[in-house]
Amino acid sequence: MSTAIGNVITSRISDRSLLRSDAFVDGEWVGAENGARFPVHDPGTGELLAEVPRFGRTETARAVDAARRALPGWRRRTAIDRSGILRRWAELIRSHVDDLATVLTAEQGKPFPEARGEVLYSAAFLDWFAEEGRRVYGDVIPSHSPTERILVWKQSVGVVAGITPWNLPAAMITRKAAPALAAGCALVLKPAEQTPLTALALAELGRRAGVPPGVLNIVTGSAQDAPEIGRELTGNPVVRKLSFTGSTEVGRLLMRQCADGIKKVSLELGGNAAFVVFDDADPELAVEGIFSAKYRNAGQICTAANRILVQEGIRERFTEALLRRTEAVRVGTGFTEGVEMGPLIDGPGLDKVQRHVADLVDRGGRVLTGGRPHELGGTFFQPTVVDGLSDESLAWREETFGPVAAIRSFGTEEEAIALANDSEYGLVAYLYGHNLGQIWRTAEAIETGMIAVNTGRVSGEQAPFGGIKQSGIGREGSKYGLDEWLELKYVNLAGLDR
């Protein structure tokens, strides 16, 4: 039995049938076997939004079995047929963009315009892979024998699982579901416990678009339930691949659990991005990049600029410009007009940001603006600039995942490269400057999976998103992202002389 949805959503939404508070398995809305539920709150106001099912291993296994039964029929469908369903799903998302953004803002906290942009971004993945799924080409390879031919086919991995984070609760759903379904896989997906309502609303639109029962399943669970759900997804022999976006710590655990079954894995894990500003950079342009790469989503993105490295000659001008922009950031609840930054997701997130700022100060850093919880209370934190980022600080070694811009200077190109590479992570780095030779050399030398030059944004459905080192395995988006959901099959065809 579904439960009521909080007034913060119902008072703003047009299509109330998108407000789902049950899990989605085999085309049906279902609760936990024992009826247990957990609460979902608005991080900006603390209001109870809904209570959703607490799934465990038993319910998750049933979702996997539903995917197993749905797989043969879905895999047999033509790529054109699957493409049409994904395109209809994308069209439905765009036609319900405001309703979806309302749900997203309520449970995640980001400003409504930012949520709206994320919803449209989620539709873009469906559009992209609807087309890429029609271009799964194989090969005919010249053989060593005149009477034989070597064929290479690409086929879907099979039943697959996905686990998505709370910071981008719409885009991360379709970034996994779109290529999985386009490839002919059947998917069991667990959204983050903080943001299940967006996933369930997207599943409802997928159902309307024609996604068959069992091809897409959404299992929900609290933080306490996550280990049990994860063990079922990694241990069930029917599941042949796991895709996870989240912390490196959890990614390591899931990869270990997948090892016994030799499952294919895609892991998009933590980041610790260096943001390098050379002397010849435009300081105002670089500051706008910081706003996108640092304060967007209150700094709660894996691509956030975590270590801001500024060359000595431009440091003063850059810092002054950054202070002006930071102090102008308007903080508030996501539905307040003109707000640029919302709250942190929860109390532990706030505690971590406070701990990082205190550690920076203890190690010689100087807070130039912000540095404290916001006067709005709750989990709001002031946009912050700290001068003096020590390479012994927590902020140097860990993702802060909050609106703290920590700066240190460097002298030479070689020093910038060494500092940028002084991390176990390798997701993204940002470079600002106009010397093409310097930018090229630095981009080649920095050890990350992605480089953004003179822009604070790196994500796009057309581009391969992913990192190296402790930032993960595999790529999402682009033509390369589809290969993550496919297996190669080699066929040696003989007897051509008969």
TrEMBL record:
UniProt-listed Gene3D superfamilies: Aldehyde Dehydrogenase, Chain A, domain 1, Aldehyde Dehydrogenase, Chain A, domain 2
Show the active-site residues. E268
- For whether the record's keyword set contains Cell membrane, the answer is no
All copies of domain Aldehyde dehydrogenase, residue ranges: 29-491
This chain's protein is named: Glutarate-semialdehyde dehydrogenase DavD
**Top-level taxon of origin:** Bacteria
**Pfam families noted in UniProt:** Aldedh
What gene codes for this chain?
davD
Annotated family: Belongs to the aldehyde dehydrogenase family.
Q: What keywords were assigned to this record?
A: Oxidoreductase
Under InterPro entries, the record lists: Ald_DH/histidinol_DH, Ald_DH_C, Ald_DH_CS_CYS, Ald_DH_CS_GLU, Ald_DH_N, Aldehyde_DH_dom, Aldehyde_DH_Superfamily
Does Nucleus appear among the keywords? no
